[in-house]
What does this fold into?
Amino acid sequence: MNTLTTNPVGPLLARLFAEAEAASAATEAAVADLSDAERTAMMRSKTAYRDLYGRLSRDPLAVSPETGRLLYMLARSAKARTIVEFGTSFGISTLHLAAALRDNGGGRLIGTEFEPFKVARAQENLAAGGLADLVEIRAGDALQTLRTDLPDTIDLVLLDGATALYADILDLLESRLKPGAVIVADNADFCPDYLDRVRAPAGGYLSLAYGDDVELTVRIG
Ligand SMILES: C[S@@+](CC[C@H](N)C(=O)[O-])C[C@H]1O[C@@H](n2cnc3c(N)ncnc32)[C@H](O)[C@@H]1O
It folds into this structure.
């Protein structure tokens, strides 16, 4: 028995992933007026992200089912009790991580999301999954909401918000990462300064690209 694949979380995730798949046409339409170059520039910009995510404020933009499963597995194998998530959206990744916390015996997950509609959807989904007691979603820009009241040590981090900010978010969390902490960064190709940092030989991390779009990093310092 595990929380991820059994009722209520298993069927809930199946429905949410199906809805996310069905919403992908709307996601494309929301940015259809932008060229590929303009989209890439927005993904890499430290100022345009509000505009980009404002256009996508009703879209789940969820991790893939494979990445979701990877998150659950990593959180279980790390016996994670404290997790920080940059970019919560509808809470699909959050459900995977919170299910792992439940199966690890409990813990605390801090999520972050600046679109109010998405904060509400994530809270609904976590309640439907019976996991709301493990999760605090901080509404607002994570550059501000992660400045205070963090756990003394952090076992696992998911970076899945505005990609240009990954290194800035790491700045806020780094001193609390315990040795062996895991960082999963989705779409990190759009943040070369983050990749340079976690791949630097003496940077205190070991890191590799995993699959098509994940950078998997372990704190070794
Ligand atoms: C790719 S989606 C996250 C998907 C989510 N992790 C999942 O798998 O279900 C990115 C989300 O991050 C939010 N976001 C982006 N930059 C943010 C920031 N600086 N602070 C808070 N939320 C942010 C966006 O509104 C968007 O909902």
Remarks:
- The chain is about 45% helix and 20% strand.
- Residues 80 and 155 are 5 Å apart (CA to CA).
